Amino acid sequence: MSITAVESEVCALRAWAEGRMVYLELTDGRIVGFPADRFKILKAASEEELKEVSVEVNGYALRWEELDEDLTVEGVVAGRFQLPLPEQAA
Question: What is the pLDDT of residue 4?
Fold first, then answer.
């Protein structure tokens, strides 16, 4: 059995945003979340715009139509982000 093959089949059942976080419920039962501010276009979006996320391509992609932004579920789950974590206030 190949773990890589199983990992590459990760798909989202649903997606939603709360505040500046985007969450995915995956077909394997996990729920993962990521800060919207880790992606350039999403960082500039309002919280209302973030809530307009939809699951596309049979669960393999996230889409924000109004923002014209697409992300792969696999990339999000693997932690492939465009921007670094913001520095925390000391």
Answer: 43
